[in-house]
């Protein structure tokens, strides 16, 4: 019985002070809405992957196609000279070389 009395007393105090009501009920609801809206939508990964294809075979092309299926990732296949130029100019930071 004491528990019910204390619960009603706390509820009465909470409803009497509008700031308390905002802090305990409205603010958490707004925070949940904000978090849900932030983590919904487009993928967080947006990037480019550069490859040097020395193999030229079907396995390499299958590999590139599988990687390109990743949402938000764009695959570029370069020859060695193009990759070296882009790396020297710091247009790209890394290129993965597929051996023959």
SSE map:
Layout: H1 2-16, H2 18-38, E1 47-53, H3 58-68, E2 73-78, H4 80-88, E3 96-98
Parallel strand pairs: 1-2, 1-3
Describe the 3D structure.
This protein is of the alpha/beta class. The protein has two domains: about 1-40; about 45-100. It has four helices and three strands, in the order ααβαβαβ. It has helices spanning about 1-15, 20-40, 60-70, 80-90; strands at about 45-55, 75-80, 95-100. A three-stranded parallel sheet has the order 2-1-3. The longest helix has 21 residues, at about 20-40.
Q: Categorize the overall geometry.
A: rod-shaped
Number of helices: 4
Question: Which segments are poorly predicted (pLDDT under 50) over 5 or more consecutive residues?
Answer: none
Number of domains: 2
Which percent band covers the strand fraction? 15-25%
The share of residues in helices is 55-70%
Oligomer: single chain
Overall mean pLDDT: 84
What is the N-to-C succession of helices and strands? Answer: HHEHEHE
Q: Distance N terminus to C terminus?
A: 81 Å
Helix-strand category: alpha/beta
Sketch the major β-sheet.
Answer: 3 strands, parallel
Number of strands: 3
The radius of gyration computed from the alpha-carbon positions, rounded to a whole number of angstroms, is 28 Å
For the biggest β-sheet, the strand order reads 2-1-3
